[in-house]
Amino acid sequence: MLSNLQQQPADALLALIKLHNADPRADKIDLGVGVYRTGQGDTPVFAAIKAAERKLVEEQDSKAYLGPEGDMAFVEALMPYVFGKDTADMGGRIEGMQTPGGTGSLRVALAMAKRAGIERIIVGVPSWPNHAQICADLGLAVVEFNHATTGGRTDMEALGTALGRAGERDAILLHGCCHNPTGIDYSHAEWDEIAHLVAEAKVLPILDLAYQGLGNGMEEDAYGVRRVLVAVPEALVSYSCDKNFGLYRDRVGALYVMAAVPEDLPRMMSNGHMLARANWSQPPDHGAAAVREVLADEALTAQWLDELDQMRERMRQVRAKLAAAGTAGAVDLTPLGGQNGLFSIVPLSKDQVLEMREKHGIYMAGSGRINVAGLTMGNIDKFIAAVADVTG
Ligand code: LMR
């Protein structure tokens, strides 16, 4: 029976990690998967997380099961950061659960939407490839619209048209900040308009917030999520701590459900808990426990926010240097200066991406996406020269 299984392609992005590791060239550059890197090219554990982990080793008195919802103190500690200090649960209308990373959260969010009767997910493209993959695996149809114009701006017209055509069994999946893969985010004014359009179309918003703090700051990066939430009766918010706490492989995330009235929440959450139990039973504890320790301690919280500021500042410097280069061969690098987060698209063909890898040892996603944190003051000139070479 199992021999009936068809070969599946390896995940292109994750496969890049292995290809890069196997490349013997000393000056190779990894611009593939989205992990933050320092100016020295390292992805260290946050000092605040290290301190929290030491505390856990000393003080944690049990590793007994917590239940499908995971560590609720962790889930609740994040809420003021996501939803705002004064509106942390929107008057009792928001409840959350811990999930294995942002992917686990999206999996439960989309499955929950499907159980509620949603049939189609409206997504701006390009998007993170796993969005479409999870939808396909759940049997949810994907309706695409252009996220950005060729001029590198958000395509509000395409978004408006997609929402104008939406039906009552549709949901819209929106990136809260640091759009993956384009780095092209909605402005505050555009979020105001989106909130209005989503409410008018009566579609269910699913907001993916995987990079809070890496764009323009913790508060600023939550603007879109908060703006949409005040405009609609119900919403799902998928949250990841993998990037903003540097916990990638520990898989730390949360799913938040906003109900029209608090009385609906227990019934809705029971579906989330059931889906967790059917998928992974209970989320892994360690990373979320470390985040909880950080957020429970004022000094550690300040240290974490400071580390996050430094990351953001470094990425801004890389972006400024790319933009200052102007053009590289046929590519205009200036728009990258105004984009947000870890990612941007460099408009290269598949063949040019391959040439970047084979000739120059520069690893980037097939879409032309680069992880700007993979660039340092020591390798950025090589990158710019290589782009000029393959497009010149
Ligand atoms: C990325 O897009 O590189 C990250 O979100 C990591 C992943 O799991 O794909």
TrEMBL record:
Subunit structure: Homodimer.
Family affiliation: Belongs to the class-I pyridoxal-phosphate-dependent aminotransferase family.
InterPro entries the record matches: Aminotransferase_I/II_large, Asp_trans, PyrdxlP-dep_Trfase, PyrdxlP-dep_Trfase_major, PyrdxlP-dep_Trfase_small
EC number(s) on file: 2.6.1.57
One GO BP annotation of this record: L-phenylalanine biosynthetic process from chorismate via phenylpyruvate
Coiled coil: 301-328
Entry GO CC: cytosol
EC top class, as a word: transferase
Record domain Aminotransferase class I/classII large: where: 27-386
Keyword Coiled coil: yes
Domain of life: Bacteria
Official protein name in the record: Aromatic-amino-acid transaminase
Organism field: Novosphingobium chloroacetimidivorans
Cofactor: pyridoxal 5'-phosphate
Keywords of this entry: Aminotransferase, Coiled coil, Pyridoxal phosphate, Transferase
Gene Ontology molecular function: identical protein binding; L-aspartate:2-oxoglutarate aminotransferase activity; L-tyrosine-2-oxoglutarate transaminase activity; pyridoxal phosphate binding
